[in-house]
Design a protein that fits this description.
single chain; 64 residues; alpha+beta; three-stranded antiparallel beta sheet; 1 helix
Length: 64
């Protein structure tokens, strides 16, 4: 029997602040936490909020 391995996928967020400044998360989230953070960002007026997959050690770059 072959043991099952699971790979945890991490996610980052990209968004535009209400003043128009592109931002990116420095932290990594699991999918559920990323969705929760996306909701929080939209609630304070951020736009273009995207959840993006990231690899270990990788930080998403803000898109201008």
């Amino acid at each position: 029997m072959v043991p099952m391995t699971s790979v945890m996928q991490n996610y980052g967020l990209l968004w535009t602040d209400p003043d128009g400044t592109p931002q990116a998360s420095a932290g990594r989230y699991d999918k559920r936490s990323a969705k929760h953070r996306r909701t929080e960002l939209k609630a304070v007026g951020c736009t273009r909020v995207e959840i993006v997959p990231v690899r270990p050690g990788e930080v998403p770059e803000p898109v201008s």
